[in-house]
Amino acid sequence: MTKELVRKRIKMLAKVITAQAMFPVLFVVALQMVSTYLFSLLANAVCARYFPNTSLQIGQYSFNFMYPIMAVLLNALVIPLQLGVAEFLQLLVRGRKPPVSGIFYWFSDGEKLRVAFSYFLFSIVLAFVMLPLSDIPYQYINRVVNEVNVDLYEQIQAGAKYITFNKALFNWPLLGLSALLLILGMLVSVRLVPHLYILVDRPQEGAFLAAKRSWEAMRGHTWEYLVFLLSFAGWYFACIATFFIAGIYLSPYLQISTVIFVGYVQSHPIFQQDIKTSAGNGGEGGL
Description:
Number of domains: 1
Order of helices and strands: HHEEHHHHHHHHH
Shape: globular
Radius of gyration: 21 Å
Number of helices: 11
Helix content: 55-70%
């Protein structure tokens, strides 16, 4: 089966599952997204209020080292929810009918909490790995964009006859290095896409071994997964055009598609199951 047919099959199977369990999937996915977003805002607020002067300077890079620390600590509160949602979606894709309440079992079950703690320890290690690959270059590029925008706004307000761009915009070596680090960080993130699903499938092995299995499972599938995400481009534009109303369908559809992709890279039988829609009927349909 070609990679294009693999994408079509995954997306058709995802459409069937999403149609059958739209509201439960939408609920658990939205709950996870909102919780993660709120705790991210809380981490920003805590850093701004209590650690405003905790920036480190490394060459021309300046970054607040307290934010990733606070983000990891606060994220520990939603790790059981993340694991519960991953387990719920994986069981759903495998033809089971898990109760929505099951996503909260990870907060009360002793064995599940031990697994969550294992994932928390892994997230600390991952935060240190991603610091130079994501946080530092992102904060630098964000600072450059803000400086350029402020400088441009001030020139327009002053009625400047000729617009000159901030010199930070032309620091190509540093901007190029930052872009390269962000790409490397993105590739690391892609290799860890199956991590949560492998962990809830084999909780006794712990988060670190699950990360190793995830890394191995994605070998040879990294770019395939990126192309897979790009195949939803029509939906991304639809979200923008509808002020993200289309995201009500896209969020569960994309999450289910990702779970099926994880099953595909692990050669799980779920990907081999028969579905009524043939590979040639429906396709990717532009969206």
